[in-house]
Amino acid sequence: VIHLAAFKAAGESMIHPHKYSLNNLSGTINLLGAMLEHGCRNIVFSSSAAVYGEPNYLPIDEEHPQSPENYYGFTKLKIEEFLSWYEKIHGLAHAKLRYFNAAGYDVTGKIMGLEQNPANLLPIVMETAKGWREKLKIFGDDYDTPDGTCIRDYVHVSDLARAHTLALEHLGKGKGSLTVNLGSQEGISVKEMADTAKTITGVDFKVEMADRRPGDPAKLVASSKRAQELLGWEAKNSSPEQLISSTWHVYKSKAAPL
Ligand SMILES: NC(=O)c1ccc[n+]([C@@H]2O[C@H](COP(=O)([O-])OP(=O)(O)OC[C@H]3O[C@@H](n4cnc5c(N)ncnc54)[C@H](O)[C@@H]3O)[C@@H](O)[C@H]2O)c1
């Protein structure tokens, strides 16, 4: 089983935590129950960098303390704990894949659907370049980073997809459970992302600085050394240019979603 289904908006999870409990926690418990009932032995789970919270050190490796800053991250952490217990008691093998910031579009062009009301940076940048939004708001330009805006580790969905295939193979061969970070190991600032998007789209869209959002660490960058060692995985399509071009390729010809 590859278990990707979840609610994932960190801000919303702090306003409607019960919604996140029902879907993310109860949904996973139901899924684990169905797996046990049908003799299904392996699960690949979409976990998140949100399980770590504010970083104590960088790059963040899998041994970093886990102290989520929002309820969404808490649900991912609890599911990780369920998986460890179900392994201990029932022998279910798991791959906990802690994605950093997933971004980009399928490079083969098979998946062309647009996300509605996106909350992640890149789709918002695209909607601004298309003129569907008046401006891009950057939340805080006074962080302790070179240009003052937050730095994140963006990883292309094609790289993430490849990690899932490798994790399934690993579990299928009986090599045991694993927990790995999936990130590019490169930090990109919000401003750098916006500037690169302006160059690639050719649109000089409006950018406005806004107040910081609570709970946003200045910098998050992954160490994906363990994914390299255990799965032979590393990000290959996750440069800002590849992330933006693959996304713009889909957005540039689209009308605004309803
Ligand atoms: N996007 C990121 O940066 C990121 C980072 C870390 C982890 N993740 C995790 O990766 C997974 C996929 O994320 P995404 O960015 O593709 O999110 P997404 O919101 O685009 O996709 C999640 C999908 O799950 C579906 N879903 C939710 N609850 C469901 C349910 N009970 N039954 C059936 N379908 C349900 C939603 O309709 C949606 O299509 C999620 O578990 C998310 O928490 C995402």
In short:
With 258 residues, the chain is an alpha/beta fold.
Write a structural description.
The chain is an alpha/beta fold and 258 residues long. Helices cover 40% and strands 15% of the residues. The protein is built from eight helices and ten strands. The chain has helices at 10-15, 17-37, 71-90, 121-129, 157-172, 190-201, 225-231, 240-251, and strands at residues 2-3, 42-48, 93-99, 101-103, 136-139, 151-152, 154-156, 178-182, 188-189, 207-210. The strands form four sheets. It has a four-stranded parallel sheet with strand order 1-2-3-8, with helices on both faces. Helix 2 packs parallel to helix 3 (71-90), helix 4 (121-129) packs parallel to helix 6 (190-201) and helix 6 (190-201) crosses helix 8 (240-251). The protein is globular. It starts with a strand and ends in a 7-residue tail after the last helix. The mean pLDDT is 96. Nicotinamide-adenine-dinucleotide (NAD) binds at residues 4-6, 8, 23, 27, 46, 48, 99, 101-102, 115, 120.
How are the elements arranged and paired?
Elements (H helix, E strand, L loop, with lengths): L1 E2 L6 H6 L1 H21 L4 E7 L22 H20 L2 E7 L1 E3 L17 H9 L6 E4 L11 E2 L1 E3 H16 L5 E5 L5 E2 H12 L5 E4 L14 H7 L8 H12 L7
Parallel strand pairs: 1-2, 2-3, 3-8, 4-7, 5-10
Antiparallel strand pairs: 6-9
Helix pairs in contact: 2-3, 4-6, 4-8, 6-8
The structure holds nicotinamide-adenine-dinucleotide.
The site of nicotinamide-adenine-dinucleotide has 13 residues, from helix 2, strand 2 and strand 4.
Distance between the termini: 32 Å
**Poorly predicted residue ranges:** none
Helix/strand/pairing category: alpha/beta
The ligands bound in this entry are: nicotinamide-adenine-dinucleotide
Q: How would you sum up the global shape?
A: globular
